[in-house]
Design a protein that fits this description.
Blueprint lengths: L1 H30 L3 H10 L6 H24 L5 H28 L32 H9 L2 H29 L3 H27 L5
Helix pairs in contact: 3-4, 3-6, 4-7, 5-6, 6-7
Length: 214
């Protein structure tokens, strides 16, 4: 009796191993798409010259500078209203930038291109070599001035630079919201329009409070 039980244990263990291996194979089949599914996904992705891809690339660059300027002013003023605005821009635009770069990765598209900026919206912009790669972006000289400023001077300069930056961003986002093919880009761009228009109005009030205008 004992020998029969002992001899059955290897068979039970072997059966368990087979079941685990089978379960693992099923899991891999469920998680890992087939090669044909992957090909279909790439084929369905927006083309490299599409509005979706062009907007994602250009707005990622545009957003990056807005985040940079916000970090600069955050460390050069103690004004809570300006610091709060800078914090909101940092968090919102860094998050949106991450989403756009993630979509480019998913679509199998490069995150950068040698194409002229804004060509996707039939409004090509040739960079002037001063750091302003697209409309509304600050020049290297303007960024240096912001880094050198402190207190109220930094606040006013930041608001004056960020206002045209947002306005140009709204134009780009409005174009993408109306012309993009994917729901991801259309919805994100429409949200950008609403959010940045609200901040433009806020910045106008903040400049007025500081005796200045955009």
């Amino acid at each position: 009796m004992t020998s029969a039980i002992r001899s059955s244990r290897p068979m039970v263990l072997a059966g368990g191993v087979v079941l685990l291996l089978a379960a693992g194979l099923v899991a891999l089949m469920l998680v890992r798409p087939s090669s044909s599914a992957g090909s279909a996904s790439v084929a369905a992705a927006p083309s490299d010259t599409s509005v979706d891809v062009g907007f994602a690339r250009d707005m990622s660059v545009h957003h990056q500078q807005a985040v940079e300027m916000s970090f600069i002013v955050r460390d050069r003023t103690s004004d809570e209203a300006v610091r709060r605005l800078a914090y909101d821009i940092i968090n919102t635009q860094a998050n949106q930038r991450g989403m756009m770069l993630g979509w480019l990765e998913t679509w199998g598209r490069a995150k950068s291109s040698s194409a002229v900026p804004m060509k996707w919206m039939n409004h090509p912009f040739t960079p002037r070599g001063d750091g302003s790669l697209m409309p509304g972006m600050a020049t290297d000289t303007e960024l240096d001035a912001l880094r050198a400023a402190k207190g109220r001077n930094a606040e006013v300069l930041f608001l004056k630079l960020m206002t045209p930056h947002h306005k140009a961003g709204v134009e780009m986002a409005r174009a993408a919201a109306g012309s993009a093919d994917t729901d991801e880009i259309r919805n994100l761009a429409a949200g950008m329009v609403r959010g940045q228009q609200s901040e433009i109005a806020l910045m106008a009030d903040m400049l007025k409070e500081r005796g200045s205008t955009a």
